[in-house]
Amino acid sequence: MKNETEKSASSGVSLRSRALDWVDARTGVRSLMKKTLEEPIPGGARWAYVFGSGLLFIFILQVITGISLALYYTPSAETAHTSVAYITKQVAGGAFLRSLHSYGSSAMIIVLALHFLQTFLYGSFKGRRELLWLSGALLSFLILGMGFTGYLLPWDQKAYFATAVGTNVAGQVPLIGSLITRFLRGGDTIGTLTVSRFYVAHVFLIPSTILMFVAAHIFLFRKAGPAGPVTEHPVTPKLHTEPFYPRQVLFDMLFALLIVAVLAGLSYLRPVTLGPIANPADSRFLPRPEWYYLPMFEWLKFWEGPAVVVGVVVIPGLLAAALFLMPFLDRRLERKIWRRPIPALAVACVVFGMVFLGIKSQIDDHQPGTAQQLAQQLEEEKAFSAEAFVPYTNAPDKVSSEVNVAVSADPLVPKGKDIFNERGCSACHGDNGAGSALAPSLVGITHKFPPDRLAALLHSPSPRMKAGGMPTVDASPDEMNALIAYLGSLGSRPPSAPAVAKIAPKLQSETSPNGMAPSLVKVSVPVHVSEVHNKTVPKDVAGQQLFQERGCFACHGEDGASGLAPALAPMISKVSDSELSHALQRPTARMQKGGMPPVEGSPDEIESLISYLRTLPMPR
């Protein structure tokens, strides 16, 4: 029996050995493993060298958890939020998995910063390691890109508005800024094309590029060899060496286990929440990016007008260039940090500056009004996360998707319906224009706007429509006629629906009954929509209609008497009409950070809006 057992064991070992010999003969895996594990480390193994391996481990963890999440995720503005809610609330271990992936992105930034500081402080980029440093610097930007593209994918309020701020920042680049923003968003607004582009970048393009540069980084590291401690010469090592295996492998494994333990503990004890679905029309929401983008978010507040180019493009560009050119700027072979005062001071200023801006951003958020709004947003996020999962429907607002389409002999109606579906209008407005959580119902839209005005709005959406995700409808006259015919066929004509729009109350002066000073009373003024831009309508009345159409009241309150934004009358009292026109069409960086969009319109429309603003009373 003993001989048979030994023979069986010997046979198993022989089979494995033969299999390994077969693979080694074709790949050279044994010599590669031997070279890797026996790599000499000048000065011996140290805890300071674990950050590079830790980064690689976290990246692999992110790939595994990301693939698992992608099995359930659908990248569209209509279904992204529901699919993430399904992962979080329905999938077994889904909340833990998503939290692990989310906390992993933050862990990657932290370990990346530690790896950079260790490499810089040790002077490990010196001595024929320029390409190694350049590949690492590029990898750091790719990691930041992973965080930015992944932030939008849950499609909740926080994700939407933070991405809006980020893509607006890209628009500050001179000459090509608008092109960059349109490329990132897939158009003028953030919608399904934005989600799909960010998804492709986050899941395919950036990870594949990271893998390529990780391979290059490892190759260059093996070629140059470990730099060793600061006392080692960067070109001709002189200290005693120790093989990578077993001590450094043990250090790396223990660090990886520590990362897993911290991430798992956070994911279990404090799972990542999911807020309500993105609502672009919510003017109250205060966007805040992830913590590692907060310094840049705070930095932007210091720059306004033409100077924003300096703050957004020039200074960050110079810092990025200095990061990439570090080995060429600090060329001396001296590695001790106390003998490199200028580079050390420069890096210290940048690091402390980022920490200061991050802390200042947090302090600013504790201001009474801001803190109250942020607390409310957090409560809404927690409340939504605690709610039961609600499956996706075509009409989440409980409006039946089975809207009656008027039977018509008009051959344009079916053609218009095809255009409506082909252009993806149903993705936001629901089947048959019934409306959804993303966009309102279109039933009866032709009773609110005459065909020419509706066509103009489709060709050139108002800023409020654009903020809600409405893209420009590029169509020929025949296609536009067919589309409008189809919109007119939706539902049934509401009883006594006049083609007029009642605008908000207008403040007018009227003598008080006792003959004393005039008092301000509110008068409702019905105005035909098609007449708003007609010169027969008083400019202040037309301007009031524009004030309502463009959604200005959402921030500044009815009659501009203040709300989320300040009262308008005191702000414009000392400003000329030309200066006010310029501010409306080209808001300063400070105004944009407060949520003020550019006001687009013809010269007559801008003049009408200013005429109305001049009628606004001073707050009491």
Notes on the structure:
The protein has 620 residues and is mainly alpha-helical. It has four domains: 37 residues; 309 residues, Cytochrome Bc1 Complex, Chain C; 78 residues, Cytochrome c-like domain (Cytochrome Bc1 Complex, Chain D, domain 2); 112 residues, Cytochrome Bc1 Complex, Chain D, domain 2 (Orthogonal Bundle), CATH 1.10.760.10. Helices cover 58% and strands 3% of the residues. The chain contains 27 helices and six strands. It has a two-stranded antiparallel ribbon. Strands 3-6 form a two-stranded antiparallel ribbon. A two-stranded antiparallel ribbon has the order 4-5. It is globular and about 95 Å long.
Structural class: mainly alpha
What CATH architecture of the largest domain would you give? Answer: Up-down Bundle
Number of strands: 6
Q: Give the tally of structural domains.
A: 4
Contiguous helical run count: 27
Shape: globular
CATH class of the largest domain: Mainly Alpha
Q: Quote the CATH topology of the largest domain.
A: Cytochrome Bc1 Complex, Chain C
Q: Radius of gyration in whole Å, from Cα? A: 31 Å
Helical content stands at: 55-70%
* Span of the ends, CA to CA: 104 Å
> Approximately how much beta-strand content do the residues carry?
under 5%
The CATH superfamily of the largest domain is: Cytochrome Bc1 Complex, Chain C
Indicate the low-confidence ranges by residue numbers: 395-408, 492-536
